């Protein structure tokens, strides 16, 4: 047996152990229900200077740098739909009071309508996020949208009409600036979700829309795609803007149909994945140099006005890659000139294949992308109980991301989102019929992998409160504030006896506490953020997965996971000596005579060890 001499014990108990015991202990949920977390606790106002790391993050003993100097690999993201988070100002619930197209759509009983959340509500909850260890807040698009199209609304923010002002349902430009200033005063970054692929659906085609009275319908294709060859031969649509929609987009050049592809609806395959209308939305002609220049101007102005710390870019693979080659470097350069030296952009490339994903960080000159491959592998291992070699196979391709400004450590890790759905939902519908206790343990373990494996962790809002949902899209976009949506409120949440009909900002929730603990470990151990990752054990069974994280200085940490319901043992190809347990949920290590390390691990557990 190796005797573990603890040099630095984590100040936490095992998050996995907490997850395993919380559901079985009614005192946890009862105390959670009685806890009151006032939104004004421990918030730093914009006028107040951040004087300590503890004040800025709520993480004791961390060495978190000032937000302007901090690298992307030091971030813990929180991805949130503002409309579904917290209502800080009921006066703006119905949107614009003067612009009809951005007015209305408020109905808290319908999952596809506005629910009243806004940027003031986000500002009020900064203490809640800070105490969880969040260092970056990523907002879904906040620019002015078309409120209604058919029987659904633009609550999600992806139907932009005006690229110069915030959507009135979310507040004013002044409210947004106040939110950003408050976040920055608390050493928290703010990332905007932006769109260059499309605008709101305004343009009509005479050949299939007739007089233009037929409008967009959720997910319904209305105009068959015309290929590039068809268009070249003269077989094309005749675009027009209905009289009541003339000049409603800002800036003005976006109102001219000549700046759009106008080729009909995409089926998301072949060339129409780039040139077709994304669910009927107006597909911008990003091949046109005037459009490239216009988009660079639009988002340069946003950087200058609001000083966000970076962008998440929507629908990246539906835009020609030549656009990104100009757009991405131009915006980073402009941000640097505006005093944002670590401005960072990452794209949404909805594909799990590293060959596809890495093309946009190398050829496409983007700094990073969301790692859908990671999300799919986590589901394979922790929901479907496939072998841990699913993870090893993914990580074996990490070298494909390497170039002058990108590497796999900068990829954005997530385990669920607003399109795919929540991991808790995937567990709930699994053929393995997981118990509530096991769901909680598997969710905690999944998030530990999101933090401790290579990449930057992204917490999807509500995950820390055990949100489940009924699927992706609208079904995964529940309210944190008390909800009136029946299909949300009938969910059995994980780790609590609350429902979404309750206020769900419970700092005593076991998953909230687990995430806060993981964030503390992540910030306290540079190797977990910057260390080169090497897989040293995986198998074709759902059992142990082990990696090392090694810094250029030689400092090394060993991270071992057991994704099985049973105690597991494995011999690791590892000859170094273990110095101390950084995080150990009841596991033991022994060595053998062949320069290997035998690890025995409890079910659904994780351990991190400092190597001598």
Automatic annotation (TrEMBL):
UniProt enzyme class: hydrolase
Reactions catalysed according to its record: Endohydrolysis of (1->4)-alpha-D-glucosidic linkages in polysaccharides containing three or more (1->4)-alpha-linked D-glucose units
GO biological process: carbohydrate metabolic process
Gene3D superfamilies given in the database record: Glycosidases (3.20.20.80), Golgi alpha-mannosidase II (2.60.40.1180)
Cofactor dependency: Ca(2+)
Stored Pfam families: Alpha-amylase
Keyword set, alphabetical order: Calcium, Carbohydrate metabolism, Glycosidase, Hydrolase, Metal-binding, Signal
Keyword Cytoplasm tagged: no
Protein name per the record: Alpha-amylase
Organism encoding this protein: Thalassotalea algicola
């Amino acid at each position: 047996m190796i005797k573990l001499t603890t040099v630095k014990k984590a100040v936490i108990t095992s998050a996995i152990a907490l997850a395993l015991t919380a559901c079985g202990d009614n005192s946890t949920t009862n105390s959670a229900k009685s806890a009151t977390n006032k939104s004004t606790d421990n918030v730093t106002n914009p006028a107040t200077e951040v004087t300590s790391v503890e004040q800025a993050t709520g993480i004791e003993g961390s060495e978190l740098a000032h937000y302007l100097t901090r690298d992307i690999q030091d971030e813990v993201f929180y991805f949130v739909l503002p409309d579904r988070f917290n209502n800080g100002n009921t006066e703006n619930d119905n949107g614009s009071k003067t612009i009809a197209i951005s007015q209305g759509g408020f109905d808290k009983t319908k999952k596809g309508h506005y629910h009243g959340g806004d940027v003031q509500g986000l500002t009020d909850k900064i203490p809640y996020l800070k105490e969880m260890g969040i260092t970056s807040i990523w907002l879904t698009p906040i620019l002015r949208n078309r409120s209604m199209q058919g029987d659904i609304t633009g609550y999600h923010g992806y139907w932009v009409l005006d690229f110069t002002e915030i959507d009135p349902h979310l507040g004013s430009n002044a409210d947004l600036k106040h939110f950003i200033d408050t976040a920055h005063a608390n050493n928290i970054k703010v990332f905007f979700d932006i769109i260059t692929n499309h605008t709101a659906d305004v343009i009509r085609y005479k050949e299939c829309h007739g007089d233009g009275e037929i409008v967009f319908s959720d997910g319904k294709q209305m105009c068959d795609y015309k290929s590039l060859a068809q268009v070249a031969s003269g077989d094309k649509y005749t675009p027009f803007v209905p009289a009541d929609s003339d000049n409603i987009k800002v800036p003005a050049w976006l109102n001219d149909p000549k700046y759009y592809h106008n080729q009909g609806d995409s089926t998301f395959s072949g060339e129409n994945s780039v040139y077709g209308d994304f669910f009927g939305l107006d597909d911008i002609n990003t091949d046109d140099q005037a459009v490239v220049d216009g988009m660079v101007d639009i988002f340069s102005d946003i950087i200058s006005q609001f000083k966000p710390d970076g962008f998440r870019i929507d629908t990246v693979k539906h835009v020609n890659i030549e656009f990104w080659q100009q757009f991405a470097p131009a915006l980073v350069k402009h941000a640097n000139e505006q005093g944002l030296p670590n401005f960072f952009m990452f794209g949404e490339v909805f594909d799990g294949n590293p060959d596809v994903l890495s093309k946009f960080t190398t050829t496409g000159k983007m700094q990073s992308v969301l790692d859908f491959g990671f999300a799919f592998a986590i589901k394979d291992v922790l929901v479907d109980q496939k072998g841990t070699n699913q993870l090893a196979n993914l990580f074996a391709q990490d070298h494909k991301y390497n170039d002058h400004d990108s590497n796999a450590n900068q990829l954005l890790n997530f385990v669920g989102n607003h399109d795919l759905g929540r991991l808790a939902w995937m567990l709930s519908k699994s053929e393995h019929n997981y118990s509530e206790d096991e769901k909680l343990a598997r969710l905690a373990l999944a998030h530990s992998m999101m933090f401790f494996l290579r990449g930057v962790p992204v917490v999807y809002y509500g995950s820390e409160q055990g949100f489940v949902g009924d699927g992706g899209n609208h079904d995964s976009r529940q309210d944190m504030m008390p909800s009136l949506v029946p299909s949300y409120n009938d969910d059995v949440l994980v780790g609590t006896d609350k429902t979404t009909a309750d206020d769900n900002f419970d700092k005593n929730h076991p998953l909230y506490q687990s995430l806060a603990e993981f964030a503390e470990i992540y910030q306290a151990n540079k190797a977990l953020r910057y260390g080169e990752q090497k897989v040293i054990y995986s198998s074709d069974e759902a059992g142990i997965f082990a990696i090392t994280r090694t810094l250029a200085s030689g400092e090394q940490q060993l991270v071992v996971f057991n994704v099985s319901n049973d105690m597991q043992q494995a011999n690791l190809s590892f000859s170094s000596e273990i110095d101390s347990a950084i995080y150990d949920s009841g596991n033991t290590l022994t060595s053998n005579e062949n320069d290997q390390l035998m690890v025995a691990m409890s079910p659904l557990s994780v351990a991190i060890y400092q190597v001598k």
